[in-house]
From TrEMBL:
Residues 1-48 form the HTH myb-type domain. InterPro entries: Homeodomain-like_sf (IPR009057), Myb_dom (IPR017930), SANT/Myb (IPR001005), SANT_dom (IPR017884). Residues 1-36 form the SANT domain. It comes from Linnemannia exigua. It comes from the Eukaryota. This is Uncharacterized protein.
């Protein structure tokens, strides 16, 4: 089904922490599978809501 605002919020948080590790994204969201997370990320990327190149370097901002 459609993603809830809370799920989308969790996805965005997880992307900042884990980048494109879809298993970790799904784990963080808790209600979605890795393949659903992957589809959502590619959808967001198409809509230009996220820039995955920016995210890939975010792991070192601790």
């Amino acid at each position: 089904g459609p993603w809830s605002p809370k799920e989308r919020e969790l996805l965005m948080e997880a992307l900042k922490v884990y980048g494109k590790d879809y298993w970790k994204l799904a784990e963080h969201i808790g209600t979605r599978s890795p393949s659903q997370a992957m589809k959502a990320v590619s959808h967001l990327k198409k809509k230009k809501k996220i820039d995955l190149d920016d995210l890939s370097n975010s792991g070192d901002k601790k």
